[in-house]
Amino acid sequence: MNVEEALKEAMRAQVGEVYAPPSMGSAVRRRRRRSLVRFRTTGAVLVTAAVAITVPVVLTNTTPQAGPASGASAPAIAVPGIVVPDVVGMNAKKAYLLLEQAGLTPMIMTPGEGADKAGVVAGENVILTEPAAGAVADPKALVQIKVPWVPAPTASPEPPADKPATTSDLGDLGDGLTWMGVHVGYLPEGVKWSGNSYAGGFGPKSATVPYVTEGLEEGMYSIQVIVGVDQNLLRRDGQKVGPDTWVNNYNEGGGEEPFGPATTLTASRDIPGDQVVQVLFSPDYSASLGEERARTEIAKVIEHIRLEK
Amino acid sequence: MTDEDEAAFDEFVAARSTALLRTAILVCGASAHDAEDLVQGALEKVYRHWSRIRADNPEAYARKVVVNSAITRSRRRRVIQEITFAAPPDTPVDAPDLGLREAMLTELRKLPARMRAVLVLRYWEDQSEAETAAQLGCSVGTVKSQAARGLARIREAMVEGVPA
């Protein structure tokens, strides 16, 4: 047997039995959407992931409330120019679904100003959208759904159990380090709980808590921790820094890119049980530390997240 | 993207992802899991430009992205690989064929990433020298010399791999 034939034979033996999983196409699409969401929220607290939204709501219930563009019930994929529906006053989650159905890319945001630090949480009803109702947007254009700050519920650390699928907060978390069955055991110096938390935005049994440095504008994060059971939160690429733990920088396309002002330093870890945890360092915060220290710190933060017994 | 674009993309993925995955495993010398991630990343790029490239030759484009990101990735892993593969296997060789195959694959993984990519494209994908050169963005002469040197090293491994 000559060397070419022998090599072919060896290669066939190595990969001949490997098949791509049937889910490849949907995995690619999820990845694309997820990376868009991540980039668009650079620096702003990520409250919800487009990918992780499950759609149990009957959409016809919300359609009559829509404004000028209630053509939303028709498939709107290739329509050039979509009139932004009027969703003000609507529950943010319903507004999200309606805008998504209209062919836009909605994102739920808390307002960037007008709140007095702690003691407030994101409310549930939409106060305005950007672009506003009636404006014509490109298909898939980003529409920010803004919700107000409302006083945080006092005392009860248990969130109301009757609406697990909505984006709501986890209540008073004390020091903000223990929630959803995990304990954040380490934060870099000068970083503390923002006073906010959001549940349900990243699929079932998910929540996210932003941590901030002193003087950061409301609605922004320095470090954001996301916990969920959606395996898409786990990105097994980049630098492996520990058991089941990876650190990488993602750019607009979700692709790996060298550390820089337009990338989000992200650590993912598969923790025991069915949970997955992700830690994001905002581009500004990463830049303030410098790459080497940011990488060391993010590895330390994710390493010290443990299950709370 | 139109619905038709989406459907065509699904068809493309269903038809080609296994071939892309196999090539990725061979080029980057990684586990199937790592290679799968790499292929997903490449297909995401394809998806992003799908309406533009679908009529062109999406497979060649996808393969080019897969091969080039596999080269990049394997360069990053190279140091670790050298250490892993430099150690002699601790299990004795059972059958000459198996030992030979292992020796060849080990040698293949130890080659520089681009040289390995040349061998994979030429002998696994059965691409011509010109096609291989186009995929890797180098000249036909480079493909020829890289293939010759790569094969020479594999041949040495074959000779050593066969128990006397």
From TrEMBL, chain A:
Q: Which residues form the PASTA domain?
A: 83-146
Q: Transmembrane residues, as ranges?
A: 39-59
Q: Does the keyword Protease apply?
A: no
UniProt KW keywords: Membrane, Transmembrane, Transmembrane helix
Q: Tell me where on the tree of life, at the top rank, the source sits.
A: Bacteria
- Asked whether the UniProt record includes Transit peptide among its keywords, one would answer no
| Name listed for the protein in its UniProt record | PASTA domain-containing protein
In which organism is this protein found?
A: Herbidospora galbida
Automatic annotation (TrEMBL), chain B:
Q: Where is the RNA polymerase sigma-70 region domain?
A: 29-78
The source's domain of life comes to Bacteria
State any GO BP term from the record: DNA-templated transcription initiation
Where in this chain does the entry annotate a coiled-coil region? Answer: none
**Stretch forming the signal peptide:** none
The molecular function GO annotations come to:
DNA binding; sigma factor activity
**Alphabetic keyword roster:** DNA-binding, Sigma factor, Transcription, Transcription regulation
Say if the entry is tagged with keyword Transmembrane helix.
no
Q: Which Gene3D superfamilies does the entry mention?
A: 1.10.1740.10, Winged helix-like DNA-binding domain superfamily/Winged helix DNA-binding domain
Locate the RNA polymerase sigma factor 70 region 4 type domain: which residues?
Answer: 102-154
What family is reported? Belongs to the sigma-70 factor family. ECF subfamily.
Q: What name goes with this protein?
A: SigE family RNA polymerase sigma factor
